Amino acid sequence: MNVLLNDLPGIIVRSLGPAGVYIMIGLGYNAIFAPTKVFNLAQGGLMMVAMFVAILIMELLGLPLIVGMVGAVIVVAVLAVVEERVAVQPAVRQAEPGGADITWAITTLAFMLILEAVVSIAGGTDPRRFPNILPDQRLMLGGTVLSLPAVGLFGVAIVTALALHLFYTRSRTGKFLTAMAENKDAASIRGVNVRTLTLLSFALGGAIAAMGGLFMAPLTFVYSTIAGLYTFKGVVAVSIGGMGSNAGVIIGGFLLAFVERAMTDTLGTGWVGVGSVGLLLVVLLIRPHGIMGHVQERPV
């Protein structure tokens, strides 16, 4: 406890990088879930693919980092649309009303496992380094060391959340997505193209996952099996914060990263999983729908 209190500012700062990753994955989950009610368990796989696509563009084509990043975001956005067509839509179409949940959960998870397998075969399983997007600088603030790439990743996550808020509240398309999230049938009756917006929501969720992966990549090694790990982390962050709430994702992502960092610094890395699951259980016992979540009532 003394270690935690004495180094509290340092633990908070060291939590920013992982928190940024969890927030970006959670925002991608929500971008898809809110209008479609599909929880895309392939988000971690899409994030991983973005890293490898960027590396492929830079190494094989000899193009600059920024081109590799833009290309990766576009490729993954398209891949997410393909996922919706081959892994989600058939399950939703064939299921009985109210019975599609477990079906698309299995198909999206299977899609992630396929992505892992394809990347492992094509790119190997050895960890790879990703070039720095921001200068790898360490800054001192009141005795606490700040990592510029980690702070930058957290900043990207917050800016993305704000941009999504403006998109949903100010743009015509965003308002259509919001209407679809509230009542898909009513939105369709009023002329909203539900099919097109569903594809758009998957493309948006894929692009967000790609950006999160690209900004995270310089902070760690890039390897194919990272997909499952960060899919799980994103699920925990969203569950803590509240499904469908981007503000909740920010809170949940930071709390998860903080608890993991605190457990690592005080008890060791072996306790990280205990802390993460413990935090999730405590939150769900108190707030079953998450900190910022709420019960979604459906008309009968």
3D architecture notes:
By secondary structure, this protein is mainly alpha-helical. The protein has one domain: ABC transporter involved in vitamin B12 uptake, BtuC (Orthogonal Bundle). It is built from 13 helices and 2 strands. The mean pLDDT is 88.
**Helix fraction?**
over 70%
How many structural domains are formed by the residues? 1
- What's the number of helices? 13
CATH C-level name: Mainly Alpha
Strand order of the biggest β-sheet: 1-2
Task: Quickly describe the structure.
Helix content is 73%, strand content 3%. It has helices spanning 2-6, 8-14, 16-36, 43-61, 65-94, 101-123, 148-170, 172-182, 184-189, 194-216, 226-241, 246-266, 272-286, and strands at residues 138-141, 144-147.
Keywords, separated by commas or semicolons:
single chain, 300 residues, mainly alpha, ABC transporter involved in vitamin B12 uptake, BtuC, 13 helices, 73% helix
